[in-house]
Design a protein that fits this description.
- This protein is 15% helix and 41% strand.
- By secondary structure, the protein is mostly beta strands.
- The protein folds into 4 domains: 107 residues, Thrombin, subunit H; 89 residues, Phage tail protein beta-alpha-beta fold (3-Layer(bab) Sandwich), CATH 3.55.50; 83 residues, Baseplate protein-like domain - beta roll fold (Phage tail proteins - horseshoe like beta roll fold), CATH 2.30.300.10; 64 residues, no CATH class.
- The strands form 4 sheets. Strands 1, 2, 3, 4, 5, 6, 7, 11, 12, 17, 18, 19 and 20 form a 13-stranded mixed beta sheet that branches. Strands 8-10-9 form a 3-stranded mixed beta sheet, covered by helices on one side. The chain has a 3-stranded mixed beta sheet with strand order 14-13-16, covered by helices on one side.
- A hairpin with a 5-residue loop joins strand 3 and strand 4.
- Helix 4 runs antiparallel to helix 5.
Length: 375
């Protein structure tokens, strides 16, 4: 495609292989979206003739013969390969031929959490296993897809005694892992890479610290590397999460306000909005105080973001791929909005000769807490 980046598309059951040139020639667009708290998804668009073998290659992949057609999308920018997506096809659509005489084939899919969401294992026992051990056990089934668990044990030591209770799975592996994550205020997602065919399955706290990505520059003349960037400060959007813990003897619910700051979610803005309403955290009355606090901290970190930003960039000009679920710096937006932000979501749009990204940012307030950001 365009000088500055190169696209690689791999398709196949379980172990994908690079697609033939006829597939790349028919490919007109790729869209991949990654967002916090959601499963990643992709869309491939092809312009094909009615006699093209792609009709058979893709439409039959949804049949019983090949129930899981895996797709890996890799883009190389400046010599550095980045795996944008490792997932499976879930849907196919054909738009009949128009004036050009060609049809439009659209292939959609989700990341490898879709594989984990296929078969329910209701009733599967986990005797004497804390939540993190159950998560590792479930993820081990997907080693064939290159899934490597990255599981952070909860600070809550909760090992059920087998003579008293044996935890049993409810629903699919994905649903049960998400339930276990919610119980302790954790998140779960699968990150593709760092090499094609490998994936990191992360189960742990949402981390908003680390080395930030190179800054997004706006209003800086020749140094500007974004096409658009705008911010919104809604000082009334923050809410104060309050959890109610039941006192064991009197059974009286005790309200406990939850702070929006913890070591893994430091303040990125000096002036934050003042909470204008209370949001009760439900289904925690029967939990012990540690369990309830963990769930409350997770809710509080999401409820404190008063500043949101959105924009778009050309990847070749930016020099690298902007990644979601990490920090990024902003320069040139003014005293109020410069500084570090958490990247909530990124949408990749690749066409012949063009690679652009749209993104959404967030932080808890205005005015940066750091004197500078990496260029």
């Amino acid at each position: 495609m365009l000088k500055g980046f190169h696209l690689t598309l791999m398709v196949g059951p379980t172990v994908p292989v690079p697609v033939p040139q006829i597939v790349l020639d028919a490919l007109t667009g790729i869209e991949v979206k990654t967002a916090t708290g959601k499963r990643s998804g992709f869309k491939l668009t092809f312009d094909i003739s009615n006699r093209s073998p792609l009709h058979t290659l893709f439409l039959l992949s949804a049949g019983a013969a090949l129930p899981l057609m895996r797709v890996i999308i890799i883009v190389t920018v400046g010599g550095t390969p980045e795996v944008l997506m490792d997932g499976v096809m879930t849907d196919h659509k054909i738009a009949p031929a128009g004036a050009s005489g060609n049809s439009t084939l659209t292939v959609m899919g989700k990341d490898l959490t879709e594989v984990m969401n296929q078969i329910p294992f209701d009733g599967f026992p986990f005797p004497g296993m804390p939540p993190e051990a159950r998560v590792v056990t479930m993820l081990s089934k997907y080693a064939l897809f290159g899934v490597v668990p990255l599981v952070i044990p909860s600070v809550l030591i909760d090992v059920p005694i087998p003579t008293q209770i044996i935890p049993r799975q409810v629903g699919t592996d994905y649903n049960y892992i998400m339930q276990l994550a919610d119980d302790v205020g954790y998140v779960f997602y699968i990150n593709p890479g760092p090499v094609p065919g490998a994936n990191i399955a992360y189960w742990g706290p949402e981390v908003k610290v680390g080395v930030p990505q190179p800054a997004l520059n706006t209003n800086m003349d020749a140094h500007t590397n974004v096409e658009s960037l705008s911010f919104d400060f809604d000082k009334q959007s923050p809410t104060l999460p309050v959890l109610f813990v039941q006192e064991p003897f009197t059974k009286i619910p005790i309200p406990i306000p939850v702070p929006d700051i913890n070591p893994l979610n430091p303040p990125l803005g000096l002036i934050s909005g003042i909470p204008t309403r209370i949001e009760p955290i439900r289904d925690v009355a029967k939990l012990n105080p540690v369990q309830a606090l963990l769930r409350g901290l997770s809710k509080a970190s999401r409820a404190a973001d008063a500043v949101t930003g959105e924009g778009s960039l050309d990847v070749v000009r930016y020099g690298r791929v902007l990644k979601a679920r990490q920090l990024v710096g902003v320069r040139g937006a003014g005293l109020a909005f410069d500084g570090l932000y958490y990247v909530e979501s990124v949408t990749h749009r690749v066409k012949r000769g063009e690679y652009k990204q749209s993104f959404e940012l967030s932080r808890n307030g205005i005015v940066s807490t750091v004197p500078g950001v990496p260029a």
